[in-house]
Write a structure and sequence with these properties.
529 residues; alpha+beta; 3 domains; three-stranded antiparallel β-sheet; 22 helices
Amino acid sequence: MEQFTDQQMQTLERFVTNTTGPIFALKNLPEVIKGALFSRYSRSTLGLRSLLLKEFILNQDTEFASITGCEMEAQTVGIQKAQAFYDRILDGYGDDSIGELGGAHLALENISMLGAKAIEDCRLGGSPLEKSTRYIYFDQKVDGEYLFYKEPVLMTSAYRDLYLETCTHLFEVYGKLIPPLTAHIEKGFPHDPAISKNAYTAALRAKVLDCLRGLLPASTFTNMGVFGNGRFFETLLQKLNCHSLAEMQEIGKKSYQELAKVIPSFIRRADPAHKHSQSYAKFAELMQKEISKMSIVYETIAKPGVRLVDWDKDGVTKVASHLLFAHSNGDLSSLYNHCKNLSEEEIGQILDAACERRENRRHKSPRALETAFFTFEIVADFGVYRDLHRHRMLTQERQLLTCNLGYYVPPEIVGTEMEEIYIGALERSKDVYDLIAKELPEEAQYVVPMAYNVRWYFHINLRALQWLCELRSQAAGHTSYRLIAQEMAHQVSQAVPQFERFFKFVDYNGYELGRLNAEIRQEQKRPLV
């Protein structure tokens, strides 16, 4: 056991949760110190608390006192003074994985929904949370203007006025339809006196806004909170810096400036002047040019929905053999050949053992399910893409957002006077998009309403697919992505019947007010006042 003086114990108490036990957490330390401390820890015979005292708290080169001070200004100055020390530690005691030992919370406000997707596209190491379109009304004005991104290229082009008018019109229609649609849905699904009025109102609002979100253009301002480790932010910033759209470049520039104040050592290679950033930018530019030269343009009619285009034909045998692996002393090839020769009933017994005891969707299945893969192509509105895109344990890629693949009309407004108004706004946007896209196809994305379909693909393993389908099919979800989640599970079960057992908590039911039960549960949890 480490021995500390009373004074040292008193000092350590500020920075660790336990000064004597073998398990403890760090506290009151900036990310740069935590990252460097863990880096040094991997090559030291000292315990972490002794290392913290000897090489950080008592080391003048670290500027420890100023970095851990309460004043942010003093902390920033201290980090700058100690930069060489921390860079030396991080470079000398590890590889890129050291960037995962420190992180930061970054807030991004008034960025477009396209900008949010560019950030969320960096999957691993980051956890984003975006402003919801189902709980927040997006028809507010500031200084007499709706909140959407004024794309600089468009604002200096001949399309400026047309762009502004079209986006403004979409917001006007969105706000105009909220009252009549609320009344229409309320009439069809009146409030039950036995149900909390607050829960009913919240579920009703979510239903209305889910229906109307398709009118919001991709330029709509949203807010995001992102927690990520250093490696995540370094990769994100490099991608944003060499993005073809001005907004992404600006987000990258401003994010680097702010992150450099809190985790400078972890993102230093994301500085556009750094050789690594310049090398990546050159690679990305040349790669995209070469691939675009070989791209093929098809005139196709896109049918909305999801299609299973490829799957692992040996998936059942792989999953079964990998389930047995950890409980066997045999090699994987032998187990694979063993399972290949088993009867369907015997294979079923192995698979059942992995799922029969699951009591709810939060009981995670064994990792063996990750050995079977599926590829789906999806055509759905951009709102659905925003929801499903957040899943990170898969490979996915989308095409440019256009008005060429049709649009989604909520069934709740079909056959009402609202339908003509809704469709009219979408068609008007398409006319403007078609005009802009001839010259500026990427910038034209900002004027596309979320109701328009986009094509993308999912390449996903069985374990991740099970989680996605069971989560996104739940009653509280948006109707559109619930149908896609249900269809994914259905198509896999048809293609590989042995895997149907793994989708036992997929909810195939339909619901009028999908959020109602969830809102009732939330209401019941609130303390009485």
